[in-house]
Amino acid sequence: MKTILPAEALCRLGVVVKDYKSSIRSFSEFFGINRWEIRRLDERRLSNATVGGKPAGHSFISAIGSAKGVALELVEPVSGDTVFAEFLQRRGEGMHHLTTNISSPENFQEARAELQKIGVGVAQSGTIDGVMDYHLLDTRQLLAGPLIEVICPHTDSVSRSPEPDEIVNFDESVTSWNRLPIEKTYHVCIVTKHRRDEVRGALEKLLGIDQWFDFGNESGVNAMDTTYYGRACKSAFNLSLGRRNTLCIEVVEMRYGESLYQEMLEQQGEGLHHMMTTICSMEKFAEVRPWLESKKIPVIQDGRVEDFCYYCYLDTRSKLAGITVEVLAPASKEWLKGREDTGAILIGPA
Ligand SMILES: [Fe+2]
Predict the structure, then answer these.
(1) Is the dihedral of CA 287, 291, 292, 298 positive or negative?
(2) What distance in angstroms lies between residue 51's CA and the mean position of ligand 1's atoms?
(3) Which of 174, 209, 237 is the last residue of a domain?
(4) Cα of 129 to ligand 1 centre, how many Å?
(5) CATH number, position 154
(6) How many whole angstroms from its chain centre is CA 134?
(7) What is the pTM of this model?
(8) Environment of ion ligand 1 (residues, CB < 5 A)
(9) What are 100-117's pLDDT values in tens digits?
């Protein structure tokens, strides 16, 4: 089976926000990002603009920043019927797309014919400064939420970063705010409605994500002390975690019970739910937890998988534009002994 667009990496995670100015500060505090490049992509800089396959002028503000293996693009829609504005209106702020490929325009045209065969068109595109195209592929149905972005510089000599209109810096008083250690984007998670296998197959065919492990999590069976908003709960869900290079995607489907996944399915539908950015010791997490709570970032779901790990979800939704953050703490130093393949997928390249 030929992969249509073998993913190079998780180049960036695209997040739709209402107001980039207030968001960049919160994201800088949480992830330690000290520099943002702001681009106002309007008729001055954007040509060949399309939405839904038809010419359609549009504009948005892009804020790109990264630190410690977390690379983000915050997007504030400004004008036009963009996929960003539609997302914001339909489900609010949150994770929207994954930038996985930087390709030549020729290679992308070849892939485009293959994409058409599986029903994937271009949801939105444009040319920036006349030298670089962006294409947001309409993988919303295929991948249960996220769009995939491909960037195409017209020639090899084109810089992959067009000139920013503005640079915003944050000093250490902001970037050292978070006491929870942030390491990298270990994975992002898609919550689906009973179609884990289908989404997993699509990720394999589209992006070449081909290293997988499956896990069934069930309260009282292999997940102990499970809680939801601070009270004991019973739930079961199945997950598949797949990796290709630095791109790691978890696909979750609910079986029964109460959980943050079920809550999202009911309130917003399928889509990107959380990102995991921390693996730390139980002692470290116990030390940081009261501080997180004092900052109104409580644990809203957690549990233990015996002799493997403790996992929890932090309510970072109001701080981080709708995003939930997952933290994992190994049960012991030997947690990956006999689970080397799982460990390679979970942790990924250094
Ligand atoms: Fe996860």
Answers:
(1) positive
(2) 32
(3) 174
(4) 38
(5) 3.10.180.10
(6) 18
(7) 0.97
(8) 189, 250, 276, 326
(9) 999 999 999 999 999 999
